[in-house]
Design a protein that fits this description.
The protein is built from six helices and nine strands, in the order βαββαββαβαβββαα. It is globular.
Length: about 220
Amino acid sequence: MPHRTKLTVAYLGGSFHGWQRQHEQRTVQGELERALSVLTGGCPASVVGAGRTDAGVHAAGQVAHLDLPVPIPPAGLLRGINGLLADDIRVRAAAAVSDAFHARRSALGKLYSYRARWRPSPVPWLGTRCAVVAPVTDPAALARAAALLVGRHDFASFTVPEAAAEPTVRTLFRVRTEARRDGLDLHFIGDGFLRYQVRRMVAALLDVGRSRLAPGDFEQL
């Protein structure tokens, strides 16, 4: 009988080709499953994530689950798997859960944050988690446009054509903009996100804030 375990994972995404395992590419799912295979003596264990992340995306608390072929206490699993992972990925927590728990289907919401900065950070470890972009001149217009994203909408305009072949309706529960001394943070909470959706929404919002995209055109998107 398999033993289901919930994992909370954090990683710096710069050296990963996203979450999903890929042949001859370094991915978060692939690294976790490689470490688990070593830990269990070669027994296969598939890790199911709450969602896929794109290449370069970081995570502070991405939830996943796996069904262990052999019982391993969560504390031992945590120590063992982190001892086999590289420094840019860590399992922050492990907990035994019932078979009813599913990392993707049990998720109530997902939070994405995008940190835009007008100039490079003088602190190296902050620079790896921020995007340096042209400054915004009308933050109020950007905030008004961001409020339009809240609710249930078709977000096909903010993804790639191949992803738009699947259902593209998603619900955003909350969008928050947070002014920083040298930039802007944008936070999105929703039931799920399409491929590239967040970065493309942010790009369009920044264009509104620079008066390069009319608010009405953004609303049509």
